[in-house]
């Protein structure tokens, strides 16, 4: 469905029609399989040069326990993930803290790194060499050469567009003091990733002050980038949730119906082939108290839940725990869907294509995947621990990135 049709359709009564069309489109292209990525969340640093009005992740040097996680701390988290059956090491960090804080600059300099991006590259390489996990990094806006160097040690990468409207960067807006959130900077990084053929995750953050038109236009910008480069592997529809002690603590929450409408619109704008994701742990409550409300996202056209961890919390939304894995699977199956674990990079980017990944990472992925490109050795969710159980004699640690 084209954007102008959607923009000219009033919200509310027509939602049911959108939802039905979105669901049919999803069923046609994705069938009844819905995926998730078993991951560990590695908060490499919580320092950040920017200030977004809704952020609970960033800390000043005086508040943070440490400036950066050490290589040993990174490996400890990654190994715990490997034992629990995860395949993704999600690296999250604040934007270039060394540009604001001498403490971050000194920490990096003492260890021979000129920037947080150089340090990130080194720990991604370490995880590849020492564990069976695949790095997926979200380090913010990047230059072309930084993207190229990170591509060598990541299976895929991500940067949320959040919103393509410059209005949110104006005085009083949530991005007034966050230059990296200017849409020009973010679209430029997304475009560079396309030119470099990096499988990329992006998405919108719904409810931070944008209008319905701006939300739809943001989705359309993502669609245009993907039409040109083919590298957007998934689009996240994430809802803002007000957090205490932030400038937007009293801002209104996105309601469930609004999320469902946005997901359906995203499916219609992005088409049936796109992988569409919404985080289950952030789903707004349903009006009738029906629980879990995230299962309704299936009606609106998602085919993926994003990363879910049996080991680490969601450090960006610490008050929103991941669903319990057994109840999660039971709920998904009760709606007639099959839940499958996936790698951080989707099968279409490595199974029958050599255009996107370096040979080492691609070879390891193919070694560990089944004929459809899903992890071979993850057989299900552990009954007692909630961890992802591995097959006996699994060779997950096999394979090489050299
Ligand atoms: S750029 Fe990211 S880490 Fe930094 S303040 Fe904004 S949301 Fe927080």
SS content category: alpha/beta
How would you describe the shape?
globular
| Rounded average pLDDT | 90
Which molecules are bound besides the chains? iron/sulfur cluster
Quickly give the CATH architecture: Alpha-Beta Barrel
Major beta sheet summary: 9 strands, parallel
Strand content: 5-15%
CATH superfamily: Aldolase class I
CATH topology value: TIM Barrel
End-to-end gap: 45 Å
Q: Which percent range fits the helix content?
A: 25-40%
Ranges where pLDDT stays below 50 over 5 or more residues in a row are 379-387, 389-402
Domain count: the total is 1
User: Over all CA atoms, what is the radius of gyration?
Assistant: 20 Å
Task: Describe the structure in your own words.
By secondary structure, this protein is α/β, with parallel strands linked by helices. It has a single domain, classed as Aldolase class I (TIM Barrel, Alpha-Beta Barrel), CATH 3.20.20. 34% of the residues lie in helices and 15% in strands. It is built from twelve helices and eleven strands. Strands 1, 2, 3, 4, 5, 6, 7, 8 and 9 form a nine-stranded parallel β-sheet that branches. Helix 8 (212-229) links the parallel strand 5 and strand 6 (232-239). It is globular and about 60 Å long. The termini are far apart. Mean pLDDT is 90; it is low at 379-387 and 389-402. The structure holds iron/sulfur cluster.
Short description:
By secondary structure, the protein is an alpha/beta fold. It is built from twelve helices and eleven strands. Strands 1, 2, 3, 4, 5, 6, 7, 8 and 9 form a nine-stranded parallel β-sheet that branches. The protein has a two-stranded antiparallel sheet with strand order 10-11.
């Amino acid at each position: 469905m084209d954007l102008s049709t959607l923009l000219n359709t009033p919200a509310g009564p027509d939602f049911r029609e959108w939802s039905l069309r979105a669901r049919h489109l999803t069923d046609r292209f994705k069938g009844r399989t819905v995926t998730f990525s078993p991951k560990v969340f590695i908060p490499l640093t919580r320092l950040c040069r920017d200030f977004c009005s809704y952020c609970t992740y960033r800390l000043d040097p005086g508040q943070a326990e440490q400036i950066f996680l050490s290589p040993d701390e990174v490996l400890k988290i990654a190994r715990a993930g490997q034992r629990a059956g995860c395949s993704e090491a999600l690296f999250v960090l604040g934007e270039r803290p060394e540009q604001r804080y001498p403490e971050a600059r000194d920490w990096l300099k003492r260890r021979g790194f000129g920037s947080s991006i150089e340090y990130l590259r080194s720990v991604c390489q370490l995880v590849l060499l020492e564990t069976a996990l695949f790095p997926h990094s979200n380090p913010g806006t990047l230059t072309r050469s930084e993207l190229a160097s990170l591509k060598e040690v990541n299976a895929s990468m991500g940067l949320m567009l959040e919103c393509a409207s410059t209005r949110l960067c104006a005085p009083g807006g949530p991005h007034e003091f966050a230059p990296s959130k200017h849409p020009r900077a973010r679209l430029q990084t997304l475009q560079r990733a396309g030119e470099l053929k990096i499988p990329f995750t992006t998405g919108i953050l719904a409810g931070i002050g944008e209008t319905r038109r701006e939300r739809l236009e943001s989705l359309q910008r993502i669609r245009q980038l993907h039409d040109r480069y083919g590298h957007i592997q998934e689009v996240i529809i994430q809802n803002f949730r007000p957090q205490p002690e932030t400038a937007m603590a009293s801002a209104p929450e996105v309601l469930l119906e609004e999320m469902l409408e946005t997901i359906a619109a995203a499916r219609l704008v992005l088409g049936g082939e796109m992988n569409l994701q919404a985080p289950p742990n952030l789903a707004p409550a349903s009006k009738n108290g029906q629980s879990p409300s995230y299962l309704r996202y299936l009606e609106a056209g998602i085919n993926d839940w994003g990363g879910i961890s049996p080991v680490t919390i969601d450090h960006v939304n610490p008050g929103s725990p991941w669903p319990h894995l057994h109840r999660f699977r039971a709920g998904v199956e009760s709606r007639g869907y099959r839940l499958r674990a996936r790698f951080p990079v989707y099968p279409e980017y490595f199974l029958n294509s050599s255009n996107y990944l370096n040979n080492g990472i691609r070879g390891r992925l193919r070694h560990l995947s089944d004929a459809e490109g899903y992890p071979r050795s993850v057989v299900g969710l552990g009954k007692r621990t909630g961890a992802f159980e591995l097959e006996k004699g699994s060779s997950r640690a096999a394979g090489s990135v050299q």
